[in-house]
Amino acid sequence: MALPDIIEIVPMTGPVTADVTVPGSKSITNRALILAALADGEVRLTGALWSEDTQIMVDALRLLGFEIAVAEDAAEPCNRHLTVQGLGGRVPNAGTAEAPLEIHVGNAGTAARFLGAFVCLAEGAVRLSGVDRMHVRPQSELFHSLRRMKYRIDSDNDLLPAVFHGTGPREIACTVSLQHSSQFASALLLSARAGTWIVDIVGDNVDEAPYLNMTHELIEAFPHAGGEFAIEPDASSGSYFWGVNCIHEGIEVTHWPLTGWQIDAQFPRFINLPREVTHNTDLGDSIMTAIVLASLAEHPVSFPALHRLRVQECERVRALRTELTKCGARITEEGDTLHIEPSPDLHGAEIDTYNDHRMAMCFAMLGLKIGGIRLRNPSCVKKTFPDFFQKLAAAPPAGLGAEIRDADGNTLSSEDLFAE
To answer: Is residue 301 part of a domain?
Structure first.
């Protein structure tokens, strides 16, 4: 059975000792898939995330002519071992200007941006489109960079849907800014070796851009001639379980990533929140976890530089403020900063998730402390963590032993809690 449209998280009442696993990193998996397709031979990706976003990338690469074998991962149900037949920089399939190859990227930002650069290496036209939200998410910086390299990109408004007219590799340079998203620079860097591109990255925070650093490190470590590459667990997905330690201590996330590639691997240091946490240098996606936890803090906490959260899966700054306010949190929005005061009178509410996986997981975590938290559209967690609610409900030590109910108050079984 599928997850119900509305679920209620029942607060935990006693101590829990748990060692929870989380699926592989989405950011690393989708980067590694692009690099594997461009490699000079077969690459086996172990521990790769198998969720909506990464399946979108796999499906797209298959449409473009790449062979990808999928095998179960006994250690984590939402991971797979993926064997990709790299073609040495060649992209076999594309359409014509009159009938471009159609690829739908859903609301997967990494797939949309990384594929936008990648398909320029094909000999022909590819049209990328997605859900309505994807059609308003920024793309112009990538489009402008590709056009400066003499690739033709057809778009009425520099957004998706767009048609990319690939003409293969060409020795040429381009400049890309980090102002709106580091994903544009990462997209160009991932395909630069095969495209023989020289990519010049500009912006005030080039040396501190965590996801750009991930891309650089990953490219350096990747087996470009073929081989095996291990995907580490997703630190942002692990942040929800570390965050539960603010409610009940005794929870660990096993195999915590140690490479330093993921900025969110720092999250355990932020469980005892300082008075300011910035999205620029402290945390990536897990800053949403910290914002929700700040409503439980005993001191004020400010979160500046949240502008990039506004153009992600939903307008996350507004969404967080709106839903925390429903729960009685004392939260104000000032420019791109959220200020949260101690909120002793928190209470339950029906939470809109905005079809945003991280909104659902953040407020599920809060529901383990505050009674009456009900989530609409909880299945949106399929984007990155399909078995999230199963892990909340599983008996310790593999899970937290939490109770999750449907809208009628019935306790849901493990089979009911998988998001698909």
So the answer is: yes
Q: What is the pLDDT of residues 265-316, one digit of tens each?
A: 999 999 999 999 998 889 999 999 999 999 999 999 999 999 999 999 999 9
Domain assignment present for residue 1? The answer is: no
Instruction: With CA atoms as reference, report the closest residue to 275 among 301, 296, 255, 297.
Output: 301
| Bridge partners, 43 (sequence order) | 84, 227
Residues 210 and 103 in one domain: yes
Residue 383 lies in a domain: yes
Written as six digits, the tokens of 107 are 């609301």
Q: How far apart are CA 419 and CA 84, in angstroms?
A: 26
Which structural domain, as residue segments, surrounds residue 136?
26-230
Those residues whose C-beta lies under 8 Å from the C-beta of residue 294, and which sit 6 or more positions away, are 273, 301, 303, 340
- Cα 416 to Cα 1, 80, 170, 173, 406, distances in angstroms: 5, 22, 51, 52, 10
pLDDT at site 179:
77
Instruction: Assess contact for 91 and 119: CB atoms under 8 A.
Output: yes
Look up residue 6 and give its two tokens: 């509305």
Residues 83-117 have pLDDT tens digits of: 999 999 999 999 999 999 999 999 999 999 999 99
Enumerate helices (H) and strands (E) in the chain, giving the number of each.
11, 19
Q: Are 220 and 261 a contacting pair, CB within 8 Å?
A: no
Q: So which residues are the catalytic ones?
A: 285
Task: Please indicate, yes or no, whether residues 168 and 254 belong to a single structural domain of this protein.
Answer: no
Amino acid at 335: G
- For 210-265, the pLDDT digits (tens) are 899 999 999 999 999 999 999 999 999 999 999 998 888 899 999 999 999 999 99
**Which of helix, strand or coil describes residue 215?**
helix
- Helical H segments across 11-108, by residue range: 26-38, 52-63
Asked which of 230, 245, 269 is the last residue of a domain, the reply is: 230
Q: Within this chain, do residues 387 and 249 fall inside the same structural domain, yes or no?
A: yes
- Rounded Cα distance between 337 and 280, Å, is 12
3-class SS letters over 223-263: CCCCEEEECCECHHHHHHHHHHHHCCCCEEECCCCCCCCCH
Q: What single letter denotes the amino acid at residue 13?
A: T
pLDDT digits (tens, 9 = 90+) for 352-370: 999 999 999 999 999 999 9
Same domain, 125 and 54: yes
Token pair in block for residue 297: 């803090």
Number of domains in the chain: 2
- Same domain, yes or no: 310 and 178: no
Alpha-carbon Rg for the chain, nearest whole angstrom, is 21
